């Protein structure tokens, strides 16, 4: 059996080092801490930087963990702990609301569905786990944007895809919607991605209060909304209660 690969061991040691303390170290500090030649440490740091696992501050020249590596860590939490801790609450939400429940996390400018509970009836339904939803045209996505779980700037700099006549396809409309979500604590999308369909979502927070995902219900507009197209308050309340319960299980303080 082949032995360990030295360069990978050294790269892992550098990442662990950057994860400790202040998280910002110079080349000399990295090399000295690990007993490496500066040239060796620099080569590994350059490689890690090329795949966005490490970033270098232009002003100080110091290194820190990169966004891609931090995203991998968040993804592990989202897909494993988030899903396992949410199961009881999502099952209960589906039973109480009578609608399908989905759990979403950010992934490369989309919403990745990591858990899906079918609507509790005998109608034909398709499992959505693994599917990707647009951030700007779904309640789950708008929650992630509103609370900074995924950056909003890239969307504001490109032309937003219009799926129906109800899609928020301009930066101005989307910005107003996100501000309202932050004020109310929940999101709603009616026929923005598909005619006849609506969804309601609320944020899931991890330790420290950061939003790590969103939970929501989805179904026909005539079931989720009243005659004026507004979501039923009872469904909004059930969704927010489920989000709070999952958040508490993840270690978030009450808010």
UniProtKB/TrEMBL annotation:
Residues 68-252 form the IclR-ED domain. Residues 5-67 form the HTH iclR-type domain. Pfam families: HTH_IclR, IclR_C. InterPro entries: GAF-like_dom_sf, HTH_MetabolicPath_Reg, Tscrpt_reg_IclR_C, Tscrpt_reg_IclR_N, WH-like_DNA-bd_sf, WH_DNA-bd_sf. It comes from the Bacteria. Keywords: DNA-binding, Transcription, Transcription regulation. PANTHER family: HELIX-TURN-HELIX TRANSCRIPTIONAL REGULATOR, ICLR FAMILY (PTHR30136), HTH-TYPE TRANSCRIPTIONAL REPRESSOR ALLR (PTHR30136:SF24). This is IclR family transcriptional regulator. It comes from Streptomyces javensis.
């Amino acid at each position: 059996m082949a032995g360990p690969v030295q360069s990978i061991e050294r790269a892992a040691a550098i990442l662990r080092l950057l994860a400790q303390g202040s998280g910002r170290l110079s080349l000399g500090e990295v090399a000295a801490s690990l007993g490496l030649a500066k040239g060796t440490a620099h080569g590994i740091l350059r490689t890690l930087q090329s795949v966005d696992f490490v970033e270098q501050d232009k002003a100080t020249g110091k290194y820190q963990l990169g966004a891609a590596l931090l995203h991998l860590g968040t993804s592990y939490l989202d897909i494993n702990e988030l899903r396992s801790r949410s199961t009881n609450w999502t099952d209960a939400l589906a039973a109480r609301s009578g609608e399908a429940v989905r759990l979403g996390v950010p992934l490369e400018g989309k919403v990745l569905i990591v858990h899906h509970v079918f609507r509790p009836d005998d109608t034909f339904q398709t499992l959505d786990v693994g599917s990707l939803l647009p951030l700007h045209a779904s309640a789950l996505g708008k929650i992630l944007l509103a609370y900074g779980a995924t950056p909003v700037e890239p969307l504001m700099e490109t032309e937003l895809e219009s799926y129906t006549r109800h899609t928020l396809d301009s930066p101005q409309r989307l910005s107003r919607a996100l501000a309202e979500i932050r004020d109310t604590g929940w999101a709603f999308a009616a026929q923005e991605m598909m005619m006849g369909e609506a969804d309601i979502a609320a944020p899931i927070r991890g330790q420290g209060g950061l939003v790590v995902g969103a939970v929501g219900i989805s179904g026909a507009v005539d079931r989720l909304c009243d005659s004026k197209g507004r979501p039923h308050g009872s469904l909004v309340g059930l969704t927010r209660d489920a989000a709070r319960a999952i958040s508490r299980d993840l270690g978030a303080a009450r808010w």
